[in-house]
Amino acid sequence: MNPIGKYIKKENIFVVEEKFFSKEQFYNYLVNKCIELKIIDEEEKDYLYENIIKQDKQGGFSIGEGIAIPHIRLKKLDTPIILFFYLIKAIDFDSIDKIKVNSIVFSIIPENDTMFSIIFHSSIIKFLQKHSMKEIFEQDPQNFKENFFNKLCEFLNSL
């Protein structure tokens, strides 16, 4: 079994109906979601936001085809945390292919866990290029979380 499977949680899959006018606005939403989920404390909010922006400026998070994979490393973390977002209203992520992003996977990885980062990113990119979050959502919006979760787990188990 792929080692990232144990970090995939159905409760960390979100359908977002809000309209964002920029990726920075989404990053702010993302940081607030991390506070809501108790991943970070309120006092870590600025640190997380600033580091996401810094990482984004160094190379961007969009991989094309409507997919973005923002990620950050945190010292205090013992295990990776992975959040999935399907945006009903896609946003501009400065993608090289100019396609607006509606599928976002955010990972927070322990600072010293390079191997997990490599395995995670390669696996999730393969999955999202094969299984569009948009298509899964449009097939059955009411059961999106369940269907996405099942497809992802099945894919990871096949690796």
Summarize the structure.
With 159 residues, the protein is of the alpha/beta class.
Structure description:
By secondary structure, the protein is of the alpha/beta class. The protein has a single domain (5-158), classed as Mannitol-specific EII, Chain A, CATH 3.40.930.10. Helices cover 43% and strands 21% of the residues. The protein contains five helices and six strands, in the order βααβββββααα. Strands 1, 2, 3, 4, 5 and 6 form a six-stranded mixed β-sheet that branches. A hairpin with a 2-residue loop joins β2 (62-64) and β3 (67-68). α1 packs antiparallel against α2. The longest helix is centred in the C-terminal third of the chain and has 17 residues, at 114-130. The chain starts with 12 loop residues before the first strand and ends with a helix.
Proportion in β-strands: 15-25%
Per CATH, the class reads Alpha Beta
Distance between the termini: 7 Å
Q: pLDDT below 50 for ≥5 consecutive residues: which ranges?
A: none
Helix content: 40-55%
- Helix segment tally: 5
The coarse silhouette is globular
Mean pLDDT: 92
Structural class determined from secondary elements: alpha/beta
Spell out the key features of this protein.
159 residues; Mannitol-specific EII, Chain A; alpha/beta; 5 helices; 6 strands; six-stranded mixed β-sheet
How does the SSE layout of this entry go?
Blueprint: E1 13-16, H1 23-36, H2 45-59, E2 62-64, E3 67-68, E4 71-74, E5 81-91, E6 101-110, H3 114-130, H4 133-139, H5 144-158
Parallel strand pairs: 1-5, 3-6, 4-6
Antiparallel strand pairs: 2-3, 5-6
